[in-house]
Write a structure and sequence with these properties.
By secondary structure, the chain is of the alpha+beta class. The chain has 2 domains: 1-46; 57-204, no CATH class. Helix content is 28%, strand content 33%. The protein contains 3 helices and 10 strands. The protein has helices spanning 3-42, 57-64, 140-149; strands at residues 69-74, 80-86, 101-108, 111-119, 124-125, 157-158, 163-168, 171-181, 184-191, 196-204. Strands 1, 2, 3, 4, 5, 6, 7, 8, 9 and 10 form a 10-stranded antiparallel sheet that branches. A hairpin with a 2-residue loop joins β3 (101-108) and β4. Mean pLDDT is 75; it is low at 3-8, 10-47 and 162-170.
Length: 209
């Protein structure tokens, strides 16, 4: 074999090696993608539900962003209650006259125990087409619940907890509580007319089953 033949053979082998390497990489990439897709099909879907109660402030901040204000109180037993306020986000668009709407979460010893939607010293209005109906069908409260907890409430049955306090602020204060989901109750207060809301609060409630 001449030197020219040897050089030609070496060049041919190099070309074959490059071609083999090229298609081997493609094959491995396809196999890898197939494996990922296969695992994705077998894995359960990630839920958008948000665990609120019992969570720490850092976790709640992951949901609603950097807090606006923080108020800390300590009782005689040494329990520390901290209330953080956050941006209400899209919830402001659910209501009328809600320019100063805010979302507050109350923590006891760094565990979330209550969520409240309110304005600073003023009420806000429910649009007429979003008022609760007699059969407790979809209302603005479903939208608020879904925004906070990440899923539509499956139930909305009234609990026997209505209380009336006449001559409060601008008229009669009505406090009404509903079960919104398993072990989650919503209380809201309206003043004089049912569309004028003072606040909405969500808390854990064992009676909601």
């Amino acid at each position: 074999m001449t030197l020219a033949d040897a050089a030609y053979s070496e060049l041919a082998l190099l070309k074959i090696a490059k071609i083999w390497r090229h298609y081997s990489i493609k094959a491995l990439a396809i196999l890898g993608l197939s494996a990922v897709l296969g695992l994705g099909i077998q894995s359960p879907a990630i839920s958008s539900e948000r665990a609120i109660f019992g969570e720490m402030p850092t976790r709640i901040e992951d949901y609603f962003g950097q807090y606006w204000t923080r108020l800390t109180l300590t009782n005689s037993e040494g329990d520390r209650t901290v209330t953080y306020t956050y941006s209400p986000g899209a919830m402001r668009s659910f209501f009328d006259n809600a320019e100063d709407l805010r979302l507050s979460v109350r923590f006891i010893n760094d565990e979330a125990v209550a969520v409240r939607v309110h304005q600073n010293g003023a009420g806000f209005n429910i649009p007429a087409d979003k008022l609760p109906s007699a059969d407790n069908s979809t209302s603005v409260f479903d939208d608020v619940f879904a925004y906070i907890f990440g899923y539509q409430p499956p139930i909305m049955s009234r609990l026997d907890r209505q209380s009336l306090e006449p001559n409060f602020l601008q008229g009669t204060l009505h406090s009404v509580t509903y079960c919104m989901s398993e072990e989650i109750a919503m209380t809201y207060e309206w003043i004089s007319t049912q569309d004028y809301i003072w606040f909405i609060t969500f808390e854990q409630e064992p009676d909601c089953i």
